[in-house]
Design a protein that fits this description.
Strands 8-9-10-11-12-14-15-16-17-20-21-22 form a twelve-stranded antiparallel beta barrel. The protein has about 425 residues and is mainly β. The protein starts with 20 loop residues before the first strand and ends with a strand. It folds into two domains: about 80 residues, Rod shape-determining protein MreC, domain 1 (Thrombin, subunit H), CATH 2.40.10.340; about 250 residues, Autotransporter beta-domain (Lipocalin), CATH 2.40.128.130. The protein is elongated and about 80 Å long. It is built from three helices and 22 strands. Helix content is about 5%, strand content about 50%.
Length: about 425
Amino acid sequence: MWTILALVLSFQVFALESFEKLTNVKILRVLPDNVVAVNRGLEDGVSRHDHAKFSNDVAGYSSRAICVKTSMNLSYWKLYRIPESEAFSLDYVYTITGMADKEIPSPLSDLRNEVIHIEEEKKAEKKDKGPDPFLIKSDLPQILTRNDLPDFDQAKKNQSVLQGYFDKDQFNKDLDHFKVSVFASPFVKQTMNESQSLRYGLRGLNAGTKYNLLTELEQQETKLKDPITKESATTKTTNGRIQFTINGLKPSVSSLSLIHYNAQHFTKLGTPSSHWQFGPVGMTWHLRRKKSWEAMDFSYIPLYDVRQTEIQKNGSVSSVKESGIRHGLRFGLKKRINEKVAFENHLWVRPFQDPASWEIETDNLNLVNDLKFIFNLTNHLFFDYNFIYQKDKLWNTLSGLPDSNTINSINIRYDFSLF
Protein backbone atom coordinates (compact mmCIF):
# COMPACT_ATOMS: atom_id res chain seq x y z
CA MET A 1 0.00 0.00 0.00
CA TRP A 2 2.20 2.79 -1.30
CA THR A 3 2.47 5.22 -4.18
CA ILE A 4 5.12 6.29 -6.65
CA LEU A 5 5.11 9.87 -7.91
CA ALA A 6 8.15 9.87 -10.19
CA LEU A 7 7.92 12.86 -12.51
CA VAL A 8 10.22 12.98 -15.53
CA LEU A 9 10.40 16.73 -16.17
CA SER A 10 12.03 18.49 -18.99
CA PHE A 11 13.19 21.97 -19.77
CA GLN A 12 11.87 24.16 -22.45
CA VAL A 13 15.17 25.13 -24.01
CA PHE A 14 15.01 25.19 -27.74
CA ALA A 15 18.43 24.71 -29.27
CA LEU A 16 20.23 22.08 -31.29
CA GLU A 17 20.78 19.14 -28.92
CA SER A 18 24.07 17.28 -28.77
CA PHE A 19 22.47 14.18 -30.23
CA GLU A 20 20.21 15.92 -32.71
CA LYS A 21 20.84 15.87 -36.47
CA LEU A 22 19.45 18.14 -39.19
CA THR A 23 19.51 16.64 -42.67
CA ASN A 24 19.03 18.13 -46.15
CA VAL A 25 20.94 21.26 -45.17
CA LYS A 26 22.03 23.51 -48.04
CA ILE A 27 24.52 26.37 -48.06
CA LEU A 28 22.82 29.43 -49.53
CA ARG A 29 25.58 32.05 -49.19
CA VAL A 30 29.29 32.18 -48.48
CA LEU A 31 30.38 35.32 -46.63
CA PRO A 32 33.81 36.64 -45.59
CA ASP A 33 35.67 35.20 -42.58
CA ASN A 34 34.38 31.65 -43.18
CA VAL A 35 30.74 32.45 -42.42
CA VAL A 36 28.06 30.53 -44.32
CA ALA A 37 24.27 30.90 -44.44
CA VAL A 38 22.18 27.70 -44.48
CA ASN A 39 18.48 26.94 -44.97
CA ARG A 40 17.84 25.98 -41.33
CA GLY A 41 16.71 28.40 -38.62
CA LEU A 42 14.58 28.85 -35.52
CA GLU A 43 11.76 26.74 -36.94
CA ASP A 44 14.17 23.78 -37.06
CA GLY A 45 15.38 24.25 -33.48
CA VAL A 46 18.58 26.13 -34.32
CA SER A 47 19.51 29.00 -32.02
CA ARG A 48 22.40 31.42 -31.69
CA HIS A 49 25.47 29.98 -29.87
CA ASP A 50 24.74 26.40 -31.03
CA HIS A 51 27.86 24.30 -31.63
CA ALA A 52 27.79 21.67 -34.39
CA LYS A 53 29.74 19.82 -37.04
CA PHE A 54 29.00 19.74 -40.79
CA SER A 55 29.29 16.56 -42.87
CA ASN A 56 28.09 15.25 -46.24
CA ASP A 57 27.87 11.93 -48.01
CA VAL A 58 30.51 12.89 -50.59
CA ALA A 59 33.37 14.27 -48.48
CA GLY A 60 32.31 13.07 -45.02
CA TYR A 61 33.32 15.29 -42.08
CA SER A 62 33.74 18.86 -43.34
CA SER A 63 34.01 21.31 -40.46
CA ARG A 64 33.01 22.42 -37.00
CA ALA A 65 31.02 25.63 -36.63
CA ILE A 66 29.38 28.02 -34.16
CA CYS A 67 26.02 29.63 -34.95
CA VAL A 68 26.38 33.43 -34.82
CA LYS A 69 22.95 34.56 -36.07
CA THR A 70 19.48 33.04 -36.65
CA SER A 71 16.17 33.91 -38.21
CA MET A 72 13.02 31.85 -38.71
CA ASN A 73 14.29 30.11 -41.88
CA LEU A 74 18.04 30.87 -41.93
CA SER A 75 21.09 30.56 -39.72
CA TYR A 76 24.65 31.84 -40.08
CA TRP A 77 27.58 29.70 -38.97
CA LYS A 78 31.21 30.64 -38.31
CA LEU A 79 33.29 27.72 -39.63
CA TYR A 80 36.50 26.62 -37.92
CA ARG A 81 38.72 23.51 -37.98
CA ILE A 82 38.28 22.82 -41.70
CA PRO A 83 40.41 19.77 -42.66
CA GLU A 84 39.95 20.26 -46.42
CA SER A 85 38.54 23.37 -48.05
CA GLU A 86 37.53 21.23 -51.05
CA ALA A 87 35.06 19.44 -48.80
CA PHE A 88 32.76 22.47 -48.99
CA SER A 89 30.60 23.11 -52.03
CA LEU A 90 27.28 24.77 -52.72
CA ASP A 91 26.37 21.62 -54.64
CA TYR A 92 26.54 19.35 -51.58
CA VAL A 93 23.72 18.50 -49.18
CA TYR A 94 24.90 18.54 -45.59
CA THR A 95 24.00 17.05 -42.22
CA ILE A 96 24.40 19.24 -39.12
CA THR A 97 25.06 17.37 -35.87
CA GLY A 98 24.87 19.16 -32.50
CA MET A 99 27.97 19.10 -30.30
CA ALA A 100 28.70 19.86 -26.65
CA ASP A 101 29.83 23.36 -25.69
CA LYS A 102 32.96 22.03 -23.97
CA GLU A 103 34.27 20.90 -27.38
CA ILE A 104 34.71 24.56 -28.46
CA PRO A 105 38.41 25.61 -28.31
CA SER A 106 38.91 28.31 -25.68
CA PRO A 107 40.01 31.07 -28.11
CA LEU A 108 36.87 30.56 -30.19
CA SER A 109 34.50 30.47 -27.22
CA ASP A 110 34.62 34.28 -27.18
CA LEU A 111 32.52 34.24 -30.36
CA ARG A 112 29.51 33.37 -28.19
CA ASN A 113 29.80 36.76 -26.49
CA GLU A 114 30.30 38.81 -29.68
CA VAL A 115 27.67 40.23 -32.02
CA ILE A 116 28.77 39.69 -35.63
CA HIS A 117 27.24 42.09 -38.13
CA ILE A 118 26.03 40.36 -41.29
CA GLU A 119 24.74 42.39 -44.20
CA GLU A 120 21.53 41.11 -45.68
CA GLU A 121 21.23 40.70 -49.44
CA LYS A 122 19.87 43.83 -51.04
CA LYS A 123 16.90 43.39 -53.30
CA ALA A 124 16.94 45.13 -56.66
CA GLU A 125 15.19 48.46 -56.43
CA LYS A 126 12.28 49.05 -58.73
CA LYS A 127 12.67 51.95 -61.10
CA ASP A 128 10.16 54.77 -60.91
CA LYS A 129 7.98 54.56 -64.00
CA GLY A 130 6.36 57.93 -63.36
CA PRO A 131 2.73 58.72 -62.59
CA ASP A 132 0.10 56.12 -63.38
CA PRO A 133 -1.91 57.38 -66.39
CA PHE A 134 -4.90 55.34 -65.24
CA LEU A 135 -4.93 56.73 -61.69
CA ILE A 136 -8.39 57.93 -60.71
CA LYS A 137 -8.49 61.01 -58.51
CA SER A 138 -10.23 60.63 -55.19
CA ASP A 139 -13.11 62.84 -54.10
CA LEU A 140 -12.05 62.61 -50.44
CA PRO A 141 -11.18 65.90 -48.67
CA GLN A 142 -7.57 66.96 -49.02
CA ILE A 143 -7.17 67.84 -45.32
CA LEU A 144 -8.27 65.60 -42.44
CA THR A 145 -8.39 66.53 -38.77
CA ARG A 146 -7.07 64.24 -36.02
CA ASN A 147 -10.61 63.24 -35.07
CA ASP A 148 -11.18 61.92 -38.60
CA LEU A 149 -8.31 59.41 -38.38
CA PRO A 150 -8.79 55.94 -36.88
CA ASP A 151 -6.46 55.01 -34.03
CA PHE A 152 -4.32 52.49 -35.89
CA ASP A 153 -1.62 52.55 -33.21
CA GLN A 154 -4.06 51.42 -30.52
CA ALA A 155 -5.45 48.68 -32.76
CA LYS A 156 -1.92 47.49 -33.55
CA LYS A 157 -0.99 47.59 -29.87
CA ASN A 158 -4.02 45.51 -28.86
CA GLN A 159 -3.25 42.99 -31.61
CA SER A 160 0.38 42.65 -30.54
CA VAL A 161 -0.64 42.02 -26.91
CA LEU A 162 -3.03 39.25 -27.95
CA GLN A 163 -0.49 37.70 -30.31
CA GLY A 164 2.04 37.75 -27.48
CA TYR A 165 -0.09 35.13 -25.74
CA PHE A 166 -1.65 33.22 -28.61
CA ASP A 167 -0.90 33.22 -32.32
CA LYS A 168 -3.02 30.65 -34.14
CA ASP A 169 -0.75 30.40 -37.19
CA GLN A 170 2.37 29.96 -35.06
CA PHE A 171 0.55 27.44 -32.84
CA ASN A 172 -0.34 25.25 -35.84
CA LYS A 173 3.19 25.55 -37.21
CA ASP A 174 4.77 24.56 -33.88
CA LEU A 175 2.60 21.46 -33.54
CA ASP A 176 3.79 20.22 -36.94
CA HIS A 177 7.16 19.33 -35.37
CA PHE A 178 6.04 16.58 -32.98
CA LYS A 179 8.39 13.87 -31.70
CA VAL A 180 7.45 10.67 -29.87
CA SER A 181 9.59 8.60 -27.49
CA VAL A 182 8.78 4.97 -26.67
CA PHE A 183 10.64 3.62 -23.66
CA ALA A 184 10.90 0.54 -21.46
CA SER A 185 12.75 -0.07 -18.20
CA PRO A 186 13.62 -3.76 -17.92
CA PHE A 187 15.28 -3.09 -14.56
CA VAL A 188 13.81 -0.89 -11.81
CA LYS A 189 15.02 -1.29 -8.21
CA GLN A 190 13.61 0.69 -5.29
CA THR A 191 14.26 0.72 -1.54
CA MET A 192 10.61 0.70 -0.49
CA ASN A 193 9.62 -2.94 0.12
CA GLU A 194 12.75 -4.13 -1.75
CA SER A 195 10.77 -4.41 -4.97
CA GLN A 196 11.69 -4.81 -8.61
CA SER A 197 9.54 -3.31 -11.37
CA LEU A 198 8.98 -3.25 -15.10
CA ARG A 199 8.18 0.22 -16.45
CA TYR A 200 7.14 1.22 -19.97
CA GLY A 201 5.33 4.04 -21.71
CA LEU A 202 5.49 6.79 -24.28
CA ARG A 203 6.20 10.52 -24.38
CA GLY A 204 5.37 13.16 -26.99
CA LEU A 205 6.89 16.63 -27.37
CA ASN A 206 6.87 19.18 -30.19
CA ALA A 207 9.95 21.24 -31.08
CA GLY A 208 8.11 24.55 -31.45
CA THR A 209 9.68 27.97 -31.08
CA LYS A 210 6.79 29.54 -29.12
CA TYR A 211 4.28 26.84 -28.09
CA ASN A 212 5.27 23.48 -26.61
CA LEU A 213 3.01 20.59 -25.68
CA LEU A 214 4.33 17.66 -23.63
CA THR A 215 2.31 14.47 -23.07
CA GLU A 216 3.37 11.40 -21.07
CA LEU A 217 1.76 8.08 -20.21
CA GLU A 218 3.57 5.49 -18.08
CA GLN A 219 2.62 2.04 -16.77
CA GLN A 220 4.55 0.23 -14.05
CA GLU A 221 4.17 -3.31 -12.76
CA THR A 222 5.89 -4.13 -9.48
CA LYS A 223 6.53 -7.31 -7.52
CA LEU A 224 7.19 -6.62 -3.85
CA LYS A 225 7.02 -7.98 -0.33
CA ASP A 226 4.33 -6.75 2.01
CA PRO A 227 6.17 -4.97 4.88
CA ILE A 228 3.85 -6.57 7.48
CA THR A 229 3.02 -10.09 6.23
CA LYS A 230 6.23 -10.50 4.13
CA GLU A 231 4.09 -12.09 1.41
CA SER A 232 4.75 -11.37 -2.25
CA ALA A 233 2.27 -9.20 -4.09
CA THR A 234 1.92 -7.33 -7.35
CA THR A 235 1.02 -3.69 -7.87
CA LYS A 236 0.15 -1.69 -10.97
CA THR A 237 0.80 2.03 -11.28
CA THR A 238 -0.34 4.52 -13.93
CA ASN A 239 1.20 7.97 -14.37
CA GLY A 240 0.05 10.58 -16.88
CA ARG A 241 1.05 14.18 -17.53
CA ILE A 242 0.09 17.00 -19.89
CA GLN A 243 2.24 20.14 -19.88
CA PHE A 244 1.76 23.25 -22.05
CA THR A 245 4.26 26.10 -22.33
CA ILE A 246 4.18 29.50 -24.04
CA ASN A 247 7.70 30.80 -24.57
CA GLY A 248 8.87 34.37 -24.89
CA LEU A 249 6.26 36.21 -22.84
CA LYS A 250 9.33 38.20 -21.83
CA PRO A 251 12.96 37.57 -22.82
CA SER A 252 13.54 35.24 -19.87
CA VAL A 253 9.98 34.28 -18.84
CA SER A 254 7.63 31.56 -20.11
CA SER A 255 4.22 30.36 -18.96
CA LEU A 256 3.60 26.87 -17.56
CA SER A 257 0.36 24.83 -17.37
CA LEU A 258 0.28 21.32 -15.94
CA ILE A 259 -2.06 18.37 -15.33
CA HIS A 260 -0.71 15.27 -13.57
CA TYR A 261 -2.52 11.98 -12.79
CA ASN A 262 -1.38 9.05 -10.68
CA ALA A 263 -3.15 5.84 -9.62
CA GLN A 264 -1.94 2.60 -8.07
CA HIS A 265 -3.62 -0.60 -6.96
CA PHE A 266 -2.12 -2.95 -4.39
CA THR A 267 -4.20 -6.12 -4.79
CA LYS A 268 -7.71 -4.59 -4.70
CA LEU A 269 -6.89 -1.43 -2.79
CA GLY A 270 -6.19 1.87 -4.52
CA THR A 271 -3.31 3.64 -2.79
CA PRO A 272 -4.12 6.10 -4.21
CA SER A 273 -7.09 5.09 -6.29
CA SER A 274 -6.72 8.48 -8.02
CA HIS A 275 -4.46 11.48 -7.52
CA TRP A 276 -4.87 14.63 -9.63
CA GLN A 277 -2.82 17.81 -9.66
CA PHE A 278 -4.13 20.73 -11.74
CA GLY A 279 -1.99 23.80 -12.46
CA PRO A 280 -3.76 26.16 -14.91
CA VAL A 281 -1.20 28.99 -14.88
CA GLY A 282 2.41 29.12 -13.69
CA MET A 283 5.65 30.83 -14.67
CA THR A 284 9.15 29.69 -15.60
CA TRP A 285 12.15 31.99 -15.24
CA HIS A 286 15.08 31.04 -17.50
CA LEU A 287 18.18 31.90 -15.52
CA ARG A 288 21.35 33.15 -17.13
CA ARG A 289 23.07 30.53 -19.27
CA LYS A 290 26.67 29.69 -18.45
CA LYS A 291 29.25 27.99 -20.63
CA SER A 292 29.37 25.03 -18.24
CA TRP A 293 25.56 24.55 -18.13
CA GLU A 294 23.28 24.28 -21.14
CA ALA A 295 20.13 25.23 -19.23
CA MET A 296 19.10 26.47 -15.81
CA ASP A 297 15.57 27.54 -14.85
CA PHE A 298 13.16 27.99 -11.94
CA SER A 299 9.37 27.50 -12.06
CA TYR A 300 6.45 28.24 -9.78
CA ILE A 301 2.90 26.97 -10.33
CA PRO A 302 -0.01 26.71 -7.83
CA LEU A 303 -1.57 23.22 -7.99
CA TYR A 304 -5.05 22.09 -6.96
CA ASP A 305 -4.37 18.69 -5.37
CA VAL A 306 -7.08 15.98 -5.07
CA ARG A 307 -6.05 12.59 -3.71
CA GLN A 308 -8.28 9.62 -2.89
CA THR A 309 -6.92 6.59 -1.00
CA GLU A 310 -8.63 3.30 -0.08
CA ILE A 311 -7.89 1.88 3.38
CA GLN A 312 -8.80 -1.54 4.75
CA LYS A 313 -9.75 -1.59 8.43
CA ASN A 314 -11.58 -4.28 10.45
CA GLY A 315 -12.36 -6.22 7.28
CA SER A 316 -14.00 -3.30 5.48
CA VAL A 317 -12.64 -0.86 2.91
CA SER A 318 -13.11 2.87 3.35
CA SER A 319 -12.04 5.78 1.17
CA VAL A 320 -10.11 8.83 2.41
CA LYS A 321 -10.12 12.00 0.32
CA GLU A 322 -7.48 14.71 0.70
CA SER A 323 -7.75 17.99 -1.22
CA GLY A 324 -6.04 21.33 -1.02
CA ILE A 325 -3.46 23.55 -2.66
CA ARG A 326 0.16 22.76 -3.33
CA HIS A 327 2.73 25.38 -4.24
CA GLY A 328 4.78 23.76 -7.01
CA LEU A 329 8.43 24.87 -7.03
CA ARG A 330 10.76 23.41 -9.65
CA PHE A 331 14.48 23.94 -10.18
CA GLY A 332 16.40 22.24 -12.96
CA LEU A 333 19.79 21.96 -14.62
CA LYS A 334 20.86 20.46 -17.93
CA LYS A 335 24.38 19.88 -19.21
CA ARG A 336 26.03 18.33 -22.26
CA ILE A 337 29.08 16.36 -21.16
CA ASN A 338 30.19 15.41 -24.70
CA GLU A 339 28.65 14.40 -28.02
CA LYS A 340 27.28 11.13 -26.64
CA VAL A 341 26.50 11.89 -22.99
CA ALA A 342 24.13 14.39 -21.36
CA PHE A 343 23.14 15.06 -17.76
CA GLU A 344 20.04 16.64 -16.24
CA ASN A 345 18.57 17.06 -12.76
CA HIS A 346 15.06 18.25 -11.84
CA LEU A 347 13.86 19.02 -8.32
CA TRP A 348 10.16 19.44 -7.45
CA VAL A 349 9.10 20.68 -3.99
CA ARG A 350 5.31 21.02 -3.46
CA PRO A 351 4.33 22.07 0.10
CA PHE A 352 0.65 21.51 0.96
CA GLN A 353 -1.68 24.31 2.07
CA ASP A 354 -5.01 23.63 3.77
CA PRO A 355 -7.64 25.91 2.14
CA ALA A 356 -9.71 25.93 5.36
CA SER A 357 -7.00 27.29 7.66
CA TRP A 358 -4.56 28.56 4.98
CA GLU A 359 -1.79 26.91 6.95
CA ILE A 360 1.19 25.62 4.94
CA GLU A 361 2.40 22.19 6.08
CA THR A 362 6.17 22.43 5.79
CA ASP A 363 6.59 18.68 6.46
CA ASN A 364 4.17 17.68 3.66
CA LEU A 365 6.36 18.57 0.67
CA ASN A 366 5.60 15.83 -1.91
CA LEU A 367 9.28 16.11 -2.91
CA VAL A 368 10.81 14.47 -6.01
CA ASN A 369 14.40 14.81 -7.25
CA ASP A 370 15.01 13.24 -10.67
CA LEU A 371 18.62 12.68 -11.80
CA LYS A 372 19.31 11.28 -15.25
CA PHE A 373 22.35 10.41 -17.39
CA ILE A 374 21.55 10.05 -21.11
CA PHE A 375 23.74 8.02 -23.48
CA ASN A 376 23.20 8.26 -27.23
CA LEU A 377 23.65 4.86 -28.92
CA THR A 378 22.46 5.72 -32.45
CA ASN A 379 20.56 8.57 -34.11
CA HIS A 380 17.26 7.56 -32.46
CA LEU A 381 18.19 5.01 -29.78
CA PHE A 382 19.10 6.08 -26.23
CA PHE A 383 20.21 4.41 -23.03
CA ASP A 384 19.30 6.23 -19.80
CA TYR A 385 20.30 5.72 -16.18
CA ASN A 386 17.73 7.24 -13.82
CA PHE A 387 18.01 7.86 -10.05
CA ILE A 388 14.93 9.24 -8.26
CA TYR A 389 14.54 10.29 -4.64
CA GLN A 390 10.99 10.73 -3.29
CA LYS A 391 9.61 11.96 0.04
CA ASP A 392 5.85 11.91 0.74
CA LYS A 393 4.39 12.27 4.23
CA LEU A 394 1.07 10.68 3.19
CA TRP A 395 2.72 7.32 2.50
CA ASN A 396 3.29 7.06 6.23
CA THR A 397 0.12 8.70 7.59
CA LEU A 398 -2.30 6.94 5.19
CA SER A 399 -0.63 3.62 4.41
CA GLY A 400 1.89 3.03 7.21
CA LEU A 401 4.87 2.92 4.83
CA PRO A 402 8.20 4.76 5.03
CA ASP A 403 7.86 8.38 3.94
CA SER A 404 10.87 8.23 1.58
CA ASN A 405 11.89 6.07 -1.35
CA THR A 406 14.75 5.80 -3.88
CA ILE A 407 14.44 4.30 -7.35
CA ASN A 408 17.26 3.13 -9.63
CA SER A 409 16.28 2.30 -13.20
CA ILE A 410 17.80 1.59 -16.60
CA ASN A 411 15.75 2.79 -19.56
CA ILE A 412 15.92 1.97 -23.26
CA ARG A 413 14.34 4.74 -25.35
CA TYR A 414 13.61 5.16 -29.05
CA ASP A 415 12.72 8.59 -30.52
CA PHE A 416 10.98 9.24 -33.83
CA SER A 417 9.04 12.05 -35.52
CA LEU A 418 5.28 11.74 -35.69
CA PHE A 419 4.81 14.25 -38.52
